[in-house]
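Researcher: Quick test of sequence recovery. Tokens follow.
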């Protein structure tokens, strides 16, 4: 996954080029997208670690139900390891809901400063750090805020950053309030990525959250390690090490997601990657490793399709072939292939979770397919007229439409001559790498 500068795409950068890693006589061209607005988004691992991706879209956040251990009324120390996104503000942690006394809140502001806040009486009160975080977009950094409720008039808020979560550097000045800060418990859930009023969204990655009800690293109340290998890719609920149940709330076509394997995200509106190939492709064995997002995008969305030339049709023709598409409406999440005005190799209700769509196009000998190594389908149609010099991932070729909302891990295209044993080895490699089924 390369950005416009030709270097590996970092967190939330557009993907201009997807390198073809094949070599030898069967290698074809790289997939590319020159138009920035149509580039899929990179969600790579960061320093070989996963994270909670918060998209900045309404209703995408993590939450923990209210419990006594999270109602902190003493000193508080909040720490978070984040994947920084310069210029974006977000509520990292909040125990706040409209109409309730606020217990505490910790934000990253759009100017790079940090904020710790609470409700004093009925007024939201806060301190912003007097210096911004020093980090580049796509890098990870620890950020921290403490509130000392027993030190002098006005009490004291202090901010820190760290590269390792062990050695801390104070960020700006120690700040005090005109009146003594008082933390009070409430019945709100604890939110990550918004507050209880549904505000404060921002696109960012979160690797870890720790909260102490002290200033000496005792009385730990919360420890969520989103990077832990025990938490699966796209998990929507899990128990963290301090015992609370964490729920990932997902909505729409850019949902909050636990990222444990690199993906490139297609928005279902305009994103695509495409390439010319030479010599033309007339057969092959494709493996598409992908997951649907939201309503899966537009009707008849193309996961992977080919046509004779750029801009030519891939459907009502004998020269093109739609390897993998989904009808994507409220009642149809099928994965199918399409050739010469008809659906082929229909896998009913298959595109509702992460899949390996495995399709062999055999020319005059027909075609066959599986989804997650199950549901074998076969077609006896003669496909010998297929001859494709162009392919796209994420949309059709002729109209720039039929876009799919999906995360793609990988796409492999082998010769149709691979054996059953070779196919099984490829599937074993894919499943060991991405834990699909």
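Model:
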């Amino acid at each position: 996954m390369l950005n416009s500068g030709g270097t590996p795409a970092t967190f939330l950068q557009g993907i201009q080029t997807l390198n073809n890693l094949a070599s030898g006589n069967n290698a074809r061209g790289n997939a590319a997208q020159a138009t920035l607005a149509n580039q899929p988004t990179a969600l790579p691992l960061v320093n070989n670690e996963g994270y909670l991706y918060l998209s900045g879209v309404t209703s995408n956040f993590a939450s923990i139900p209210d419990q006594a251990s999270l109602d902190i009324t003493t000193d508080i120390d909040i720490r978070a390891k984040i994947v920084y996104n310069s210029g974006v503000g977000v509520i990292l942690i909040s125990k706040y809901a409209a109409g309730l006394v606020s217990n505490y809140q910790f934000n990253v502001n759009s100017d790079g400063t940090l904020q710790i806040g609470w409700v004093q009486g009925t007024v939201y009160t806060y301190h912003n750090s007097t210096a911004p975080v020093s980090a580049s977009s796509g890098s990870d950094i620890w950020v921290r805020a403490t509130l000392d409720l027993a030190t002098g008039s006005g009490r004291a808020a202090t901010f820190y950053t760290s590269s390792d979560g062990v050695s801390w550097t104070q960020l700006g000045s120690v700040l005090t309030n005109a009146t003594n800060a008082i933390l009070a418990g409430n019945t709100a859930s604890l939110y990550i990525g918004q507050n209880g009023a549904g505000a404060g969204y921002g696109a960012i990655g979160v690797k870890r959250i720790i909260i102490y009800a002290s200033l000496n690293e005792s009385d730990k109340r919360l420890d969520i390690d989103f990077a832990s290998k025990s938490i699966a890719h796209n998990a929507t609920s899990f128990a963290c090490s301090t015992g609370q149940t964490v729920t990932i709330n997902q909505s729409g076509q850019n949902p909050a997601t636990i990222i444990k394997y690199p993906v490139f995200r297609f928005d279902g509106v305009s994103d695509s990657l495409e390439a010319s190939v030479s010599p033309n492709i007339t057969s092959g064995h494709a493996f598409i490793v992908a997951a649907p997002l939201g309503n899966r995008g537009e009707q008849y969305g193309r996961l992977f399709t080919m046509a004779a030339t750029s801009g030519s049709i891939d459907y009502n023709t004998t020269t093109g072939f739609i390897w993998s598409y989904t009808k994507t409406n409220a009642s149809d999440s099928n994965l199918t292939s399409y050739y010469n005005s008809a659906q082929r190799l229909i896998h009913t209700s298959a595109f509702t979770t992460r899949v390996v769509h495995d399709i062999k196009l055999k020319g005059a000998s027909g075609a066959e397919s599986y989804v997650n190594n199950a549901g074998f389908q076969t077609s006896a149609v003669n496909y010998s007229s297929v001859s494709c010099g162009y392919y796209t991932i994420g949309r059709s070729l002729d109209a720039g439409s039929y876009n799919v909302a999906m995360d793609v891990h990988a796409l492999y295209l082998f010769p149709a001559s691979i054996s059953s044993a070779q196919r099984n080895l490829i599937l074993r490699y894919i499943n060991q790498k991405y834990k699909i089924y």
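The chain has two domains: 29-40+271-434, 51-259.
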